[in-house]
Write a structure and sequence with these properties.
single chain, alpha+beta, GMP Synthetase, Chain A, domain 3, 2 domains, 6-stranded antiparallel β-sheet, 5-stranded mixed β-sheet, globular
């Protein structure tokens, strides 16, 4: 009988790696990168092996490119089998952001997948690829764009959003995952949908609270879903 460890190895080699390369990433089983003239966007496999299975997740990193190439290395530091990573400075560039993929998913917390024997053993791999495609890569691109533009950046930290999110929780509305300034607007991102009237009403109230602060850096509040799609704007 094929073991979970054997399925994990086969799944990475024959399913996960080709699927990630089909998204435009280059690399092998445990380290993938998407590069342009300014940044390297890295998706790195992190494994958590046990006696009868191997759980895995992804580390995401944005590295601003340096002027040259060369050696250096290290590890992600996020797990015992994290992929070798470029040095955070010097010839490899400067690391400007890193996170586990679970932090950018709607759940907002660590997520691990496992490949286990059975007829549906590929489903966790499909789900992991979808997470990279729909959430990981968009967030990496957004972080790289924000690094290039001083007009885009954090407005409130997660800790500073606690009061707002507590009010949303009371109304059973998904929390604000990010609050950032972009092009004269305060942009709120969360796991909301356009058809959710309760979310729109509660977020309209939160927007008026932000606008009443009189911060001259923004005159509108825009709400986006976790894929970056525009939902509502309040002025």
């Amino acid at each position: 009988m094929t073991t979970a460890h054997e399925l994990h190895t086969t799944g990475l080699r024959e399913h996960l790696a080709p699927a990630l390369r089909a998204l435009g990433l280059t690399g092998r089983q445990r380290a993938f990168v998407l590069s342009d003239d300014t940044h390297r966007l890295l998706v790195e496999l992190v494994e958590r092996p046990a006696a009868d299975r191997v759980a895995f997740t992804f580390g995401l990193r944005v590295v601003r490119r340096g002027d040259g190439g060369g050696g250096g290395g290290g590890t992600d530091g996020a797990g015992p089998h994290a992929a070798p990573a470029p040095a955070p400075d010097g010839a490899h560039g400067v690391e400007v952001w890193r996170a586990r993929i679970g932090e950018v998913l709607p759940v907002g917390e660590d997520v691990w997948w496992e490949v286990l024997p059975g007829p549906r053993w590929q489903l966790p791999l499909d789900d992991a690829v979808a997470a990279v495609r729909d959430y990981g890569l968009p967030e990496l691109r957004r972080r790289a764009a924000a690094d290039l533009s001083p007009a885009v950046g954090p407005y409130l930290s997660p800790a500073e959003l606690e009061d707002v999110n507590a009010a949303l929780l009371t109304a059973s509305v998904a929390r604000v995952q990010r609050a950032e300034l972009a092009d004269g607007a305060l942009v709120l991102t969360g796991a909301w949908t356009r058809g959710d009237g309760v979310a729109r009403t509660v977020l309209a109230g939160a927007a008026q609270g932000f606008l009443s602060a009189g911060d001259e850096r923004f005159r509108t509040v825009r709400c986006l879903d976790t894929l970056g799609r525009e939902l509502w704007a309040f002025a």
